[in-house]
């Protein structure tokens, strides 16, 4: 308790002393006429120091109590390495990965970490330093990209009803669907063997380039066109140099070589009178924008803006102009841990990282939060139609040599004009 009453008592006694001795009492508001006397100043200084000491003792007591509570929590709920299966709609978020210091750019991990702290799964100081909880995401989804099977690994306190308590603090468009114990050295990114993505798009994307895009609802994909689409997607299978399908990657960079095991487009279906289809692609790993550019190039070929040979040329050392399809329809469907499952899935201590029991809940989340968002946004904003209008701008015939020649010609032309 702060020492306010003793201070008032001392001041009253001091004023009485002044009156008894025949002195004139001057209120403190007239400090400019002479200020307070030394005895009063000493009393104020001593009381302030005592108040500061009291405040520090209170804060120290609180810290001791908090530390004690944390120690008690650690004893009751020791931290264990787990994986969380997550699903989320990416609309309105700047991707999955957290960006410390950029609070205006909200990410999926921002909301997840906040929920982990509020639910008591991790200490508050782990929110600022995610390394303390050994946090790792399996895939870093971009702005606007959704996920039905994202997996993150981290150390948490295994509190009672942990999944329910985490979800209590998450918005409806983010949900934790499952949790499993893993080995101490498990890393969801490094232990992942493959990733499967899907891409939902209006089939209008495969229409001829002279088709009237103002009549979207009337378009229906012909079986012959779907066959051609799948034949082109099949060309991606195997290992290729995808340096043209990302940014700032040299053709000589070994990391540009990626292995694709599956890529195809499914049968069309109708939603809100529009025809949609889903493309599925599975690969060992993907670079930034790689999938969107793979789809964008096939669309350009099918529509007649580019020749089919450009696909083969794009894997060479030449620089090829590859269009990037919108991010709206891209979904991380699932991640695969085949090697981990083979080694630890049958050891009697750990489960296989497979989510068959959660399959119905995954499907329900997609139907409730992911598909409606993609369809409604596409119907209202027309992101695919807007993107298709940019395809004529791309020069699919140009190579890096030709581009370099053009730059040289322009520089020579400028020099000539100077003389």
TrEMBL record:
Keywords, comma-separated and alphabetical: Isomerase, mRNA processing, Nucleus, tRNA processing
CDD domains associated with the record: PseudoU_synth_PUS1_PUS2
Binding positions for substrate per the UniProt entry: 197
GO biological process, one term: tRNA pseudouridine synthesis
Biased composition (Basic and acidic residues): 64-75
Pfam families named in the record: PseudoU_synth_1
A GO CC term assigned to this protein in UniProt: nucleus
Database matches in InterPro entries: PsdUridine_synth_cat_dom_sf (IPR020103), PsdUridine_synth_TruA (IPR001406), PsdUridine_synth_TruA_a/b_dom (IPR020097), PsdUridine_synth_TruA_C (IPR020095), PUS1/PUS2-like (IPR041708), TruA/RsuA/RluB/E/F_N (IPR020094)
Chief localisation class: nucleus
Region: Disordered, residue numbers: 47-75
GO molecular function: RNA binding; tRNA pseudouridine(38-40) synthase activity
Listed SUPFAM superfamilies: Pseudouridine synthase
Ranges where the Pseudouridine synthase I TruA alpha/beta domain occurs: 234-338
Assembly behavior: Monomer. Forms a complex with RARG and the SRA1 RNA in the nucleus.
HAMAP family: TruA
Protein name as catalogued: Pseudouridylate synthase 1 homolog
Lineage: Eukaryota, Metazoa, Chordata, Craniata, Vertebrata
């Amino acid at each position: 308790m702060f020492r306010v009453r003793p201070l008032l008592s001392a001041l009253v006694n001091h004023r009485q002393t002044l009156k008894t001795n025949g002195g004139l009492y001057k209120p403190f508001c007239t400090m400019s006429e002479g200020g307070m006397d030394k005895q009063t100043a000493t009393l104020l200084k001593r009381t302030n120091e005592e108040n500061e000491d009291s405040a520090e003792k209170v804060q120290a007591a609180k810290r001791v109590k908090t530390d004690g509570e944390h120690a008690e929590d650690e004893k009751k709920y020791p931290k264990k390495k787990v994986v969380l299966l997550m699903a989320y709609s990416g609309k309105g978020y700047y991707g999955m990965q957290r960006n410390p210091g950029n609070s205006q750019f909200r990410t999926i991990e921002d909301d997840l970490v906040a929920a982990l702290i509020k639910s008591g799964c991790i200490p508050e100081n782990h929110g600022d330093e995610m390394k303390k909880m050994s946090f790792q995401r399996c895939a870093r989804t971009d702005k606007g990209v959704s996920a039905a099977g994202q997996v993150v690994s981290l150390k948490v306190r295994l509190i009672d009803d942990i999944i329910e308590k985490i979800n209590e603090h998450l918005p409806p468009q983010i949900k934790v669907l499952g949790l499993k114990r893993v080995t101490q050295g498990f890393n969801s990114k490094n232990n992942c063997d493959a990733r499967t993505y899907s891409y939902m798009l209006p089939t209008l994307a495969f229409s001829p380039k002279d088709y009237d895009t103002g009549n979207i609802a009337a378009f229906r994909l012909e079986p012959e066109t779907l066959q051609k689409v799948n034949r082109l997607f099949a060309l991606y299978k195997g290992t290729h140099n995808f340096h043209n399908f990302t940014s700032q990657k040299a053709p000589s960079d070994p990391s540009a070589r990626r292995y694709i095991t599956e890529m195809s487009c499914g049968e069309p279906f109708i939603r809100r009178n529009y025809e949609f289809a889903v493309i599925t692609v599975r690969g060992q790993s993907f670079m930034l924008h790689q999938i969107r550019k793979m789809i964008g190039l096939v669309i350009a070929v099918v529509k007649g803006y580019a020749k089919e040979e450009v696909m083969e040329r794009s894997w060479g050392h030449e620089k090829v102009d590859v269009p990037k399809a919108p991010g709206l329809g891209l979904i991380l469907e699932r991640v695969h841990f085949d090697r981990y499952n083979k080694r630890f899935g049958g050891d009697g201590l750990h489960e296989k990282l497979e989510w068959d029991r959660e399959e119905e809940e995954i499907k329900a989340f997609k139907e409730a939060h992911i598909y409606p968002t993609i369809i409604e946004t596409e119907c209202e904003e027309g992101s695919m139609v807007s993107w298709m209008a940019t395809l004529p701008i791309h020069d699919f015939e140009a190579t890096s040599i030709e581009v370099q020649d053009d730059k040289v010609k322009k520089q020579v032309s400028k020099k000539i004009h100077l003389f």
